[in-house]
């Protein structure tokens, strides 16, 4: 691609020609890279300053690999290629990437959601709504990237800008018309979605999680809020008015704003008549104020019932977000309702793995909001005894361990749980994610203070086996934890078949077959191929 065209909308502070006289429009760029190992002949190399490494330190290696132009934030001595200096190389990478692939996000209707909890579930609901209306759709999230019938596993919740634009380009070339994606706070902070053309954006909830990158809660909030604040006047922004911090954002964006609440009834949409059947809510939705679709059609005030298929009070919020996205996209209400009803949940987000003689449930329990949502859902279920196997999350500091332990203990008293099975899952974490002695000690201290009996196992397999052995008819087993529990569902269900042979093996095998998380690479490849052929 011609360098002049590639640099459109990028503000170049200055350039270091080093005696070069070649005109920019005569330089042909065949590739963009931000890792020197990815550089080939005729590559434009972007020097990005990271938290652990600085791309400027690899500039000379990039030149030796064939880089012909370099984007820098500071000039590098003894480099015999054109250097273009910018104030923010991450921002430049996002624009360059979009230009390189022909600004693909403009070729589709794009929905992006940010939240501490629920992003993966929400885009899953939206995907089902798109499918119900028979749209060719794409999805970019924590678990996978889906392009029509093709999928690949995700490396980041929101890919780096170059890879994100590459995904969009593939989608455009496959005639994808509608895309839903998760937008993490780090992606917003690190400009991964800069210069991306969103049609609908949503900010659903926030709690003190993931603030390591941002240094403070205020910075974390501002990163997420930028998705709303930077929305264009032709787009629509969705806000959850039950989150008080989000209310002021209604007046801080050019976008059309649609608000909703379950407890706060002042928004565009309100909820009433909530009932629970086996933990699954059914409720009435009232559109209190008219709003416009992306095509300019008016959605008038009305009321209707909304039925979903996943349990939990928090599921109401997720379903409402999907509802609004569907309606704003000019999808008929009947198709939106059908898509929401078709959604059966996502892996490791209050996923019911087995529900016959007893229940087996898998959830993350990563923060207070997550715990509140999970335990509130469990409070609506019928069971004799609840058994919990929890894998502590490491490398987050003792303060995080205290927060998790106190949140769990609060709910244990509410739902009459007196014991917990605990593990550090030592063989299932990288060194950087190992649980420290202090993190374990603070967790145990909180449990002791709250008179919660703890059975501790260092290894995941031992903890899960003990948990499965405790199961009796009409009991529930909850397995929880971060990455160290990703293998938990598979191991638990295999133990269930072994220890309780009367269970429905066919049903369990079907769940195991459909899993992505925790599958070994060869089995995962087979599953991805099977998913692509079936979809």
From TrEMBL:
<keyword id="KW-0132">Cell division</keyword>
<dbReference type="Pfam" id="PF02875">
    <property type="entry name" value="Mur_ligase_C"/>
</dbReference>
<dbReference type="InterPro" id="IPR036565">
    <property type="entry name" value="Mur-like_cat_sf"/>
</dbReference>
<dbReference type="InterPro" id="IPR036615">
    <property type="entry name" value="Mur_ligase_C_dom_sf"/>
</dbReference>
<dbReference type="InterPro" id="IPR000713">
    <property type="entry name" value="Mur_ligase_N"/>
</dbReference>
<comment type="pathway">
    <text>Cell wall biogenesis; peptidoglycan biosynthesis.</text>
</comment>
<keyword id="KW-0961">Cell wall biogenesis/degradation</keyword>
<dbReference type="GO" id="GO:0009252">
    <property type="term" value="P:peptidoglycan biosynthetic process"/>
</dbReference>
<protein>
    <submittedName>
        <fullName>UDP-N-acetylmuramoylalanyl-D-glutamate--2,6-diaminopimelate ligase</fullName>
    </submittedName>
</protein>
<dbReference type="GO" id="GO:0016881">
    <property type="term" value="F:acid-amino acid ligase activity"/>
</dbReference>
<dbReference type="GO" id="GO:0071555">
    <property type="term" value="P:cell wall organization"/>
</dbReference>
<dbReference type="InterPro" id="IPR004101">
    <property type="entry name" value="Mur_ligase_C"/>
</dbReference>
<dbReference type="GO" id="GO:0008360">
    <property type="term" value="P:regulation of cell shape"/>
</dbReference>
<keyword id="KW-0573">Peptidoglycan synthesis</keyword>
<feature type="domain" description="Mur ligase N-terminal catalytic">
    <location>
        <begin position="29"/>
        <end position="100"/>
    </location>
</feature>
<keyword id="KW-0436">Ligase</keyword>
<feature type="domain" description="Mur ligase central">
    <location>
        <begin position="113"/>
        <end position="325"/>
    </location>
</feature>
<dbReference type="GO" id="GO:0051301">
    <property type="term" value="P:cell division"/>
</dbReference>
<dbReference type="InterPro" id="IPR035911">
    <property type="entry name" value="MurE/MurF_N"/>
</dbReference>
<keyword id="KW-0131">Cell cycle</keyword>
<dbReference type="GO" id="GO:0005524">
    <property type="term" value="F:ATP binding"/>
</dbReference>
<dbReference type="Pfam" id="PF01225">
    <property type="entry name" value="Mur_ligase"/>
</dbReference>
<dbReference type="Pfam" id="PF08245">
    <property type="entry name" value="Mur_ligase_M"/>
</dbReference>
<dbReference type="InterPro" id="IPR013221">
    <property type="entry name" value="Mur_ligase_cen"/>
</dbReference>
<keyword id="KW-0133">Cell shape</keyword>
<feature type="domain" description="Mur ligase C-terminal">
    <location>
        <begin position="348"/>
        <end position="482"/>
    </location>
</feature>
């Amino acid at each position: 691609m011609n360098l002049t065209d590639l640099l459109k909308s990028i503000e170049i502070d200055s350039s270091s020609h080093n005696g070069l006289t070649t005109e920019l429009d005569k330089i042909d760029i065949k590739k963009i890279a931000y890792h020197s190992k990815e550089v080939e002949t005729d590559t434009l190399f972007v020097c990005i300053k990271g938290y652990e490494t600085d791309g400027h330190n690899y500039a000379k290696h990039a030149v030796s690999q064939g880089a012909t132009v370099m984007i820098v934030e500071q000039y590098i001595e003894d480099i015999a290629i054109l250097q273009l200096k910018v104030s923010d190389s991450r921002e430049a990478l996002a624009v360059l990437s979009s230009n390189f692939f022909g600004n693909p996000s403009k070729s589709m209707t794009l929905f992006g959601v940010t939240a501490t909890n629920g992003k993966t579930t929400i885009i899953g609901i939206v995907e089902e709504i798109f499918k119900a209306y028979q749209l060719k759709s794409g999805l970019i999230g924590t678990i996978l990237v889906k392009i029509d019938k093709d999928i690949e596993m995700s490396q980041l919740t929101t890919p780096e800008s170059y890879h994100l634009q590459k995904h969009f380009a593939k989608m455009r070339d496959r005639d994808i018309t509608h895309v839903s994606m998760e937008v993490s706070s780090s992606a917003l902070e690190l400009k991964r979605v800069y210069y991306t053309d969103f049609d609908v954006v949503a900010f659903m909830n926030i709690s003190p999680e993931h603030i390591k990158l941002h240094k403070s809660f205020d910075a974390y909030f501002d990163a997420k809020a930028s998705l709303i604040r930077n929305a264009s006047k032709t787009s629509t922004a969705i806000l959850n008015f039950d989150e008080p911090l989000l209310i002021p954002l209604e007046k801080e964006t050019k976008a059309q704003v649609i608000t909703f609440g379950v407890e706060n009834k002042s928004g565009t949409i309100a909820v009433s008549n909530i009932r629970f059947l086996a933990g699954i809510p059914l409720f009435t939705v009232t559109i209190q104020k008219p709003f416009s679709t992306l095509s300019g059609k008016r959605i008038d005030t009305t009321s209707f019932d909304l039925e979903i298929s996943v349990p939990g009070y928090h599921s109401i919020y997720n379903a409402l977000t999907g509802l609004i996205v569907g309606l704003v996209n000019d999808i008929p209400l009947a198709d939106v309702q059908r898509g929401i009803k078709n959604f059966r949940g996502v892996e490791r987000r209050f996923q019911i793995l087995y529900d016959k003689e007893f229940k087996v449930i898998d959830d993350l329990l990563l923060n207070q909001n997550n715990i509140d949502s999970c335990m509130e859902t469990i409070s609506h279920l019928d069971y004799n005894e609840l058994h919990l196997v929890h894998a502590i999350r490491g490398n987050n500091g003792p303060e995080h361990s205290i927060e998790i332990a106190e949140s769990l203990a609060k709910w244990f008293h509410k739902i009459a749980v007196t014991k917990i099975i605990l593990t550090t899952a030592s063989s299932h974490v990288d060194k950087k994610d190992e649980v420290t002695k202090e993190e374990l000690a603070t967790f145990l201290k909180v449990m002791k203070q709250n008179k919660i009996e703890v059975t501790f196992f260092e290894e995941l397999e031992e903890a899960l086996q003990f948990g499965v052995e405790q199961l009796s008819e009409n009991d529930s087993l909850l397995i929880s934890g971060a990455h160290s529990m990703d293998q938990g569902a598979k191991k638990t269900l295999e133990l269930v078949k072994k220890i309780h042979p009367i269970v429905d093996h066919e049903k369990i095998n079907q769940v195991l077959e459909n899993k992505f998380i925790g599958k070994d690479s060869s089995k995962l490849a087979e599953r991805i191929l099977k998913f692509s052929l079936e979809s």
